[in-house]
Fold this protein.
Amino acid sequence: MVSGSLVRRLSVLMALCLAGPLLGCGGDDSSKLSVNLYGWHDDGTPDGAFVQGLPDYPGAELMRVRVTRPSTREVLTEQTVPLSDRRIAMDSIPLGQDLRMDFEVRSATGTIAGGSTPLFSFGSTSRYRAFRAMISPVNEFAPVGSMVRVTGTGEDRLVPSRLDRRELAADWIGRVGHTATPTEDGQVLIVGGGLVNAAPLPGSQPPLTEVFDDIQLFDPATGYFTELAGDDAARQTGTVGADRLQTGRAYHSVTPLGGDRFLVVGGFRVAGGTSVATGTIELIDLNAAPGTRVQVLVDSSGSAMSLNSSRAMHSATRLESGAVIVAGGRGGSSGQVLNSFEIIQTHPQNAHATQFPMSTARVGHAAVLLEDGESVWVLGGSNDDVLQSTEVLSSQGSATASDLDRPRLEPAVYLLGASGSFNALVVGGMTGVSGGATGTYAFGRPDSGFTSTGQLSEARGGATLVELPQSRRLLILGGLDSNGDFVRSAEVLTFQGLQAAMGLDGPFGTTRYERAGFAAALTDTGRVLLVGGKAPGEAARDDAEFYNPRDPVVPPRQ
Amino acid sequence: MKVMPGRAGGLWAVVAAVCLMLVSGSAWADEGADGADGGDNGEEAQEAEEERAVPAGPTPRLFLLPVDSLRGELSSLVVERVNESTRRRVDTERNSELLPSMTQILGATDAGGEAALVLAEEQYTSGIGLLNAGQYDRAAEAFQRAVDLIEANLEGLRNFGILTDALSNLAAAYFHSGYDLDARQYMQRFAQLVPDATLDPEIYPEELREIYDDEVDRVTRAETGILHISTPRPGAIVTIDGVMRGETPLTVDDVGFGHHYLVVVQGEDVHREVIRVRARGQEEEIEVTFEAEEDVEAEVPAFFSSLQESLRTGRFGEGVAPHLAELVAFTDADYVAWVLMVRDGPRYIAAPFVYRARDGMLVQGENVDFNMDLSNLRSRVDRLSLIITGAVGRMPEDRAVVEVDLDPEVVEEPVVVAEPEEQPVEEDPDAVARAEDEPREALPVPDPTRTEPTRPLPDDPPGERSNTMRYLGWGGAAALAGGLVAGTVIMIVRSGSSEPGFEAEVEW
């Protein structure tokens, strides 16, 4: 009689023999990317509606899916199916790095909605990746959405995302005066900010009541905001609460230094019920160990270094050498406008700041790095009155440059051009310290003056300017109009050459909420993230919106 | 056509599989030659393995003893703060179910009602005296007890000013004791309740007065909020900060920013709550539900008191096992955890322990240090909680202890009880000297569930062997290899000239 163990072994042996050929045939072990789409549409409520799957976009007929490499403007493969199929399967997609999957919902007239995954890489050893991607109308604003699990019911729900307040004691963490800076892995770093009890006037000292010391990371892949001091790494290492600014601040500057290191300089803190400028400097290093991701720069004596003059609302520009020029702003005992700039060297153990005088005290100016990589051109701003002057700052000091075409406070500026031949494009700005705005834009050079070229559809001071990476067009968002009201639409400038005819598209869309003072950053999904901001009479917002520009990857002409 | 993986990667997989099958096949063949009767012993070994394995199943139940200090030497304020925070934090972890405390189990509460308020007033008076005498630590303890008692019996409080006075004096006592954060918190609370007070500079230092002024500023700017208060049945009496405001359903539109004391009474039902008002014109809904209160005083079981006393000495081992066993039986816990704190220079050290009921295994987690002013309370409690809940279910063997003796000067890392498998050869004489100075004792870890498998008894004398298994083993290996080779050939033919790539599937 055969024993039970022998029968067991024989059975296993037979199974292995059958499995052999299957192993040799390879089986189904292919690499796979799985994407689940969810949509947003305007249902008449302020937050609109998120749906699993896609909403019923009027006229929508087709879904086009493309796998692209945006950095090199390549379209690797694409496929179009009727929307009613609800599914697309693609195979033999080339492996590679920095890939993205773009989605377009198309009607008879063109693309009406779209979205993208974040950038991803798929190598020979990659096996399975999964994303959830948001589809929303193009050239429109939509709330940032994320999937949350409802406590108690266990139900999964798509909801508008908010800043992470789980580890914060503050009652309300909506904010203005914060910064939003892209990180090297496609997230957005949001630093500090505060609450005000009235809308700040452009260039004027904001009436802050509270400032925050938290640092948040936004992940476009999930839609979550996560406070650095309470992220997974902090929880695993028991350092929850450690990675925060040593000094809470608003209206500071955050400058990327490379390698996911960011320099946080100055800003306002609140003391005795008023906004007081600080000269402290901190370094955020996202690659440092949890609990040590916020550091102070130390000078050669080992002491924490600070600015020579405490300042807020200044400009900060990184030079190619790695140093940072901070210029102007407000500081001093009474928050006066400053007429100095400082060059901050960030060498480890030997950080220092050297101060130089400026030709004119200014705040609310624009600043752009010139083509030599070591000079910063500051334009406009205010010093009791709105300024028309400009000056170039460098390690040699300050040199007066050509005036703007008109006085501009909080203009947006963009440097156009190639080596040896460039122009600065200056857009919009307030024309008075207590009101008035312009929608004009002008080209100019430090040594040859400015030429007014055209006009936006709406006057905007303090607008945000974002270069769309594929088309190189300029997206203009937000700002205040002549009455000081928040401009809720977007416009797009198209140009050819250095001063050739500019085309203007828009205005497009309307922000879901008024958000004067928002912070914005372009994400690698192609959407622009707008965080915080406030409406008159209301507390600053703790949520965010996306603007979804139409900026498809188009291969360059051969 | 399915997409095949990269040809090179597929071939390596095939080669590896062939080798694996050949080796396993030959191993089977050899095993078959050596142990025709290995089956019975294998079953025993497997059963022993199953015995050791922790089966997946319900969430482990964890009983957390109150945080205590070595020989009770630390202020109750410190251990109670850490205890409260640790319980709250552990309760949020999902890999264990935190059982109610002994007090909650017994339904014991502090002396309630009138008696509690009388006691509170005595504590308050005592605190005033201690504050004036400069005994700030003790003053803080007294004021804290007064505040706690009053907050637990708000409905009987006739003079709300005692509570607010207690809060402001508590802030002062904390400030003078060096607990800056607590001082700030209570001074802010005071400002939210009494924004028009005048603070005596003799009692309240400038820093505290500044905190008060800043908070009053904040309260003023935030203006008021609107509260809509409702109860299951209308007609409940609503009191806010000691002032009767009306009956439910009630809308109150002049409540300032910050923390306020809400009491809702309907018949014998009482609801007390410290509410946080956002003000700025915002409306908030408060739906009150009355929960039955237990008013039974019960004695703590003797084994519990004995256990706590034993642990407090800092020296314990098998002697506490009976008390732990009784506690386990009383609470139906799978794990019992406790934390002992001791002062070490300018900081406190907390040593966590986790005891597993089913086998009596005890592990000591790594120490966690707290600042003297508990300014790092939150992060350290997080760490402590992770250590405790991390040990539940995992019980790291390298942390197992049998006898514990906490040195009051230095809280040592636990003695490693497992004997190292290899002793390094030390050629450096200094290293040899260190080894001699620091002898390591290896103690066996008792594990009553582990059974040694018995040595198999061969059925046949050593000279006689069965060839059946050997033939089966080698034959199987040959069949596998043949199948793999055939499959590989098929794969190569089928794959043709395809480039490496991946699939994608999009759904909506």
